[in-house]
Design goal:
Helix 2 packs antiparallel against helix 4. The strands form two sheets. This protein has a six-stranded antiparallel sheet with strand order 2-1-3-9-4-7, with no helix packed on it. It folds into three domains: about 140 residues, no CATH class; about 90 residues, Calcium-transporting ATPase, cytoplasmic transduction domain A (Distorted Sandwich); about 55 residues, Calcium-transporting ATPase, cytoplasmic domain N (3-Layer(aba) Sandwich), CATH 3.40.1110.10. With about 325 residues, the protein is an alpha+beta fold. The protein has twelve helices and nine strands. A hairpin with a 5-residue loop joins strand 1 and strand 2. The protein is elongated, with a radius of gyration of 33 Å. The longest helix is centred in the first third of the chain and has 37 residues.
Length: about 325
Amino acid sequence: MLLEFGAFAGLTGGLLGLFVSPAFPAPDFFAVATFITTYHILSGYASLLVRTRSGQAVRRLLDLQPDTARVVRDDGREEEIPIDEVRVGDRVRIRPGENVPVDGEVVDGASAVNEALVTGEPIPAEKVPGDEVIGGSINRTGTLVVRVSKVGEESFLNQVARSIEEARALRPGLLQLVDRILHHYVRGVLAFAGVAFAIWTIGPAVFGGGPDLTRATFATLAVLVMGYPCALGMATPLAMIRGGGMAAERGILMRSGEAFQVMQELRTIVLDKTGTITRGEPAVREVVPTGGTDANELLRAAAAVEASSEHPLARAVEEAAEQRGIVIASVDNFR
């Protein structure tokens, strides 16, 4: 509301200077009105930019779900269809290396599935018939046939995305307090603006002078402009929106804006180590050969053995060999 009053006062002062009193500094009034309006537009753009960037975390989360699924029909025929056409009860075949497209129960096959999205654990979970799989996780080793249990808005990924959006939309107690303060603050600013106008119009008459409309208008405009609560009205919601977006980018889901308020009261935080305060990805730090064996030759042999395994430690050995430029030999009869 103060924005409208300040811009209107500046515009009114400028028009008075143009058409009523040439003594009025019309350019100054117009400049103030333009500045207030421009500032508000830029602030709105900044708010939109923050919301857009925060929403990118939700979009990246939903991108984990494939656009299509390979459905196994009753006659054994496979048909690749859009994910929106998959129904509860359908059987979906998932090959090694593919993202799991749906939530469901394994009915055939066995594989290791990377569920770091959900658990944060880097070691893939072994899945056999009867186990549940979650859409967005990664099938590592074997082929699975999954019976769909949840689709659309009921799926895990969509529920997480909805929780993030709801948390961004909620107005925590701090923002409600700001709204209440602003409600009374606006009244106070308007009252002071009226007092400033009265001082320069009525005050001079007390001492035998005439009203000074130029100074009265300037004083009123100054109060309205300086009283515009840009920091109080915008900083708090922008900080919460951006904070929620940054948390989502790092895998932290804020279920409500109240979480930001109570965090200042935290004294103890308990964290799971693997994948939370560590990267969750093993890496080879040093190769220590014995018996005169060359370190690169030892690493080449170890990488050749581990190349056929999907275990995180095996991947670490293989990546260490690749980083050193070692050509990994093929292995026959791997068991």
